[in-house]
Amino acid sequence: MSSLEKGKAPMGSGFRLNKAEGKVMGVCSGIADYTNVDVTLVRVGFVLGTLLGFGSLILVYLAIGLIAD
What pTM does this model have? Predict the structure, then answer.
C-alpha cells in the first residue's frame, strides 16, 4: 500500500494537515506524518506542552490549523 493510500503525505511534499486521521483539525496527525513520528507521541507532547506552558500551545495549535492547508 503506497503512502497516498494510507492518508500520509508523500516525501518531499511539505507539511499538510491530515484531516482523515486527525481528531480535531488534523494538526497533530499532520505533524506526525511530516516528521515520521507516531501520532500518539505528538498528541501527548502537545498536551504536556499545553499544561506546562500555561496554555500557550493552544494558540500555536489554532494558528497551525488555520494557516496550514
Answer: 0.75
